[in-house]
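My current task is to audit a protein record that another person submitted. My question to you is simply how this chain folds and whether the tokens agree. This is what I was given:
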Amino acid sequence: DNEITALKSTGISLYQLLRPVLVCAVVASLLTALATMVISPACKSGFRGRIFEIALSQASIELKPRVFNSDFDHLVIYANAVDELNGSMQGILISDERAGDAPALILARSGRIIPDRAALSVTLRLSDGSIHRRPSGRHVDDYQVVTFATYDINLSLGQQTPNPENRFRKPSEFSMLELTTVLNSDGAEKDHIATLIELHRRLILPLAPMIFALIGVPLGIQSQRSGRGSGFSLALAIFLLYYMFLSLAQTLVEEKHLPVGLTLWTPSLIFFAGGWYLMYLTTRERRLPLLDWVTDRWLLLRRKLRGKVQP
């Protein structure tokens, strides 16, 4: 407080005091933009890809020759020979119960595991084989045999990954270019809204340091009647309140289907306007009435608590 009083007595204005804080806020905003737009999506996508690689390697290791493997959903796979290096197999027998009431027996001379790292899927491509099935609901003597040159089976890694949904990329893993590409393409409305929310969120978060600087300077200049330690509590309260409003806005968009842009930007606009209002009051040496009311209640509460503690 003494330093602020000395600076004011030398004729330094509030806007001059704001300059170095804004410089730090701009640097923090640029770093936040780098984190939200580049680093965070790349890390999330890389982490998801790493989980897939671990699941794929575990699946490849599990496929042992002359062993019935039942780790895949509704499939039992047996192979006479397995090459773990390239994922090729020879003499394959598969019990396929994915159809439920019409299980099938698949025989193939050879096969190969083909991972698709972009889509996070694994395909077992069979060659030179046949499919044997007894259709349900028909005559007991009915029996089907279908031969094939190549036949693809999509292997589910649901048991190897914590959640089967991890195989599908989420908007938080998209780059900025991918987000705009998805928004310009025709897709499901739910996916479009989720992508639009992610795009606005990445644009809003880098502005938070600028908003906090605009609010923090006038609040920091005003003397704290409740002590200097209360400044930390006040800053934490503003920080939490801002992100609570952001979370509430996102919930309203997702559940109440409010306009995405207007709803998500409202908390930032409110805090930005509040920061300018605080600047206006501080330049005229006026205090915020609500701040004094909160301070008085806090001091009253502290006195009551101390009175109860004393013997």
